[in-house]
Protein 1
Amino acid sequence: MAGRILKTPSAPPAIGPYSVAVEAAGLVFLSGQVALVPEGGREDGDVSAQTRQVMNNIGAMLDDIGLGYSDIVKTTIFMVDIGDYSAINEVYAGYFEAGPPARSAVEVSALPGGFQVEIEIVAARSGG
């Protein structure tokens, strides 16, 4: 593997054969996150509650590796209902004080565990 697997103790456990966080060439890739609660369990509320849980998990994981939301350069949002686009945007926007990162948002037929939203990110280390 060309990248280095990062330890993210704040992350919910992986639910498949993948690394949660990998760094390569100054870029940090976080695997798609669903609304799992790190202490166990899941957020089964509406899409806004699930988006909040996902974004909080991402923030905690970034903190584990010395980064923050301002270091995110790209996100991809997967949602099972494009009608949730506005609700997801409303929550998502609250996590970026300056300009938000580049982003893609797509509707998918289903997500693991029956979740309504999944978000993956790419972050960059300063000078990376």
Protein 2
Amino acid sequence: MPLMQWDETMSVGLDELDEQHVELIALINEAFEAIQRSDESRLMELVDHMREYAEVHFETEESVMRSCGFPELDAHREMHGQFAEKAEDFRRTMRSRTNLTEIFIFLSRWLTNHIMVEDRKLLPYLPPRNDEGA
């Protein structure tokens, strides 16, 4: 069973960002499954990929926010920086951690909260979606 599940309530109103969030959720789920299987080498690969993908996602998200005139960009950028620092710290100390499951539960909760609360603040600044004919 996955640790996290994407659904439409998590949409931030922009397909590119939604797709990146889906990918981040998939990576967290894969890493959680690797923990359950005690597959340390796969877990290390996934953690590295997750960190790299998060960097790309944060750059994309911040670029969208900048282009929309999002007034909370600096605070949002700071949250991204804090997450990146925690992820790097986790990467360095992962082998010495005793309960990786708790860490991934924390990551999933952080990402869910970040999407549902912080990223969704962008919605009023985006042009309306044109879903007609889709």
Protein 3
Amino acid sequence: MNLSKYVLTATLWLAATSAGMAYADGVSSLKDFFLNTQSMRAEFKQEVVDKQGRKVQKVEGTMQLQRPNKFRWDYQKPYEQQIISDGKQVFLYDVDLQQVTVRDLSKTLGSSPAAMLAGGEAVEKSFTLKNAVRKDDLTWVLALPKDKESGFDRVLLGFKEGQLKKMELYDSFSHVTHIAFNQIERNPALTTQTFLFTTPKGVDVVGE
């Protein structure tokens, strides 16, 4: 797997949300997500920079989330990739490689960002949460993984008027992933089929 695909895979365990009210601090905004958002849908743009600040990846697509543990990320530009969790397994489908990687969800989540946003209310079991301050119009929360083998040094989430607008992920390879969300829908009606994956004919399956 090349660097660009690794970065995409590392950040696939993500989801995002919106909340109904503005809060005074980031920790409160994040906790409100677990209380008031059961599903969400959004468009996203993602950029990855290395430790020298050079851009190594720029992609965009759509994502959907249904708690607990179901999510779908459809990367559309510049290449196609799907990341789908049905609540038990996670399927990473690389269209160019014609390959599907299957992983058990319980092994995949751990202390990843998906555990924070899609996995349930017990976020503080896996992350240490702290309010963060930035010179912008967002309210930020810093999440530090308690599992040192999670692959992430820290995750930052920026809220505005109760909605999650941005995420920043700092990984153990000194890359920073910036994700901006727009067209956010809170608690849309999503079907079970949204999170089911059927392997296309002729596609290799690995990892089962």
